[in-house]
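Is calcium ion placement plausible here? Inputs below.
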Amino acid sequence: MKKFAFILFFLPATGALASGNISDLFAALDKDGNGALSKEEASVESRLAAAFDEIDTDGDGQITRAEFDKYQSN
Ligand SMILES: [Ca+2]
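Reply from A.M.:
I modeled the complex. Tokens:
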């Protein structure tokens, strides 16, 4: 249920749902392609930005794909 809601709130920002692939959503937000989302990259989606510290479980200021996927599955 949470995963579904998460996809929905990303949809207006990225349109990635059309691909049906959650990994594409991460890639769409990872503008510099380094495999992690900075706060600046996350800032394009206000709800992601609001949850940034919750998703960034190790507190290094970057959301890795692992952290992103873990948040999705919570
Ligand atoms: Ca992190």
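Short version: Residues 2-14 form the longest helix (13 residues).
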